[in-house]
């Protein structure tokens, strides 16, 4: 027994319903699993299928194409449509972001889908491409059709299994941590440079975790006085650490964040004062392992090179104290 949808183009209607469901869910929900499950057909199949249907509303034999050809063309056209829309958006003020891509594809599917429905309705009934399901248990005599159906079914299962695998075990990209210092107003141009002894100053320290796991960070603050000398034997400049004083440790626990996130994940307005005179490098060393306890009065110049080289990240600020 065959189930025929002769009154309405049920496949195009389902594509339009799918787009209407995905749009609010993607914009309002933070569930990446739902976004992925609904978003893959929305990107890779539905745009091409609506376009193919608008171009070929008739069945094979009436200047139309069959189901296998429709499915194959739908994937190819979808990739081309998404790429073209992305290229166009790149030259607009909206750029290639989630919201513009979703909205542009949504309006494409709705507009082209409406054209497809209109063309299907104005096509004579006997020439229309009609979606049908064969629920008969009798064996078909068409070996080629049976073979193509089996291949299509296996391909669909493999594709679905691949999508589930990608969702369950997402690929981990490059892992790194952003570590930076800014001026007290959050800019890169107003750092304190010249201070009086014991004068209070402040900067902003920032961290962004892209390690794909929760991290326990330790930020050690060191005051370093160093000079650069030229080594005649090696013909290279070398750094001599004259003094290195420990001043502070900041502990931060951060969950991993989305690489596309634009806002700062963690920032701290850090105030300090220096009671020594001279030229110094206020150094911030980032560690991801437990750190030792240090004496505020001791000069650690003997382990300065080792400390700096063992740090995961390092940022510093040059100061002149008068």
Report what the structure shows.
- The protein has 322 residues and is of the alpha+beta class.
- The protein folds into 2 domains: 2-138; 176-321, Immunoglobulin-like, CATH 2.60.40.10.
- The chain has helices at residues 10-28, 32-44, 46-55, 67-90, 98-121, 143-168, 304-310; strands spanning 2-4, 132-134, 176-182, 194-195, 201-210, 215-231, 236-254, 266-272, 278-287, 313-321.
- A hairpin with a 4-residue loop joins strand 6 (215-231) and strand 7.
- The protein is elongated, with a radius of gyration of 32 Å.
Short overview:
This protein has helices at 10-28, 32-44, 46-55, 67-90, 98-121, 143-168, 304-310, and strands spanning 2-4, 132-134, 176-182, 194-195, 201-210, 215-231, 236-254, 266-272, 278-287, 313-321. With 322 residues, the chain is of the alpha+beta class. The strands form three sheets. The protein has a five-stranded mixed β-sheet with strand order 4-10-9-6-7. Strands 3-5-8 form a three-stranded antiparallel β-sheet, with no helix packed on it. Strands 1-2 form a two-stranded antiparallel sheet.
């Amino acid at each position: 027994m065959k189930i025929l949808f002769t009154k309405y183009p049920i496949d195009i209607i389902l594509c339009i319903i799918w787009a209407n469901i995905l749009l609010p869910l993607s914009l309002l929900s933070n569930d990446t699993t739902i976004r992925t499950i609904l978003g893959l057909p929305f990107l890779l199949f539905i745009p091409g299928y609506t376009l193919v249907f608008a171009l070929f509303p008739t069945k094979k034999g009436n200047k139309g194409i069959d189901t296998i050809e429709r499915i194959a063309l739908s994937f190819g056209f979808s990739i081309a449509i998404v790429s073209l829309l992305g290229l166009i958006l790149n030259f607009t003020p909206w750029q290639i972001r989630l919201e513009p891509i979703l909205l542009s594809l949504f309006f494409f599917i709705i507009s082209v889908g409406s054209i497809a429905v209109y063309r299907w309705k104005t096509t004579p009934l006997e020439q229309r491409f009609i979606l049908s399901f064969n629920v008969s248990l009798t064996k078909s005599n068409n070996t080629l059709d049976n073979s193509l159906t089996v291949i299509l079914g296996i391909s669909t299962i493999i594709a679905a299994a691949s999508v589930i695998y990608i969702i369950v075990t997402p690929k981990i990209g490059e892992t790194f941590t952003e570590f930076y210092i800014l001026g007290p107003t959050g800019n890169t141009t107003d750092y304190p440079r010249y201070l009086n002894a014991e004068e209070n100053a402040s900067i902003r320290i920032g961290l962004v975790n892209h390690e794909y796991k929760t991290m326990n960070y330790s930020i050690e603050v060191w005051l370093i006085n160093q000079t650069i000398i030229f080594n005649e034997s090696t013909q290279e400049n070398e750094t001599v650490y004259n003094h290195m004083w420990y001043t502070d440790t900041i502990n931060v626990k951060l969950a991993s964040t989305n690489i596309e996130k634009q806002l700062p994940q963690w920032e701290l307005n850090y105030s300090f004062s220096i009671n020594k005179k001279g030229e110094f490098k206020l150094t911030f060393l980032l560690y991801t392992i437990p750190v030792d306890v240090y004496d505020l009065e001791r000069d650690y110049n003997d382990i300065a090179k080792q400390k700096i080289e063992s740090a995961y990240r390092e940022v510093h600020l040059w100061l002149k104290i008068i």
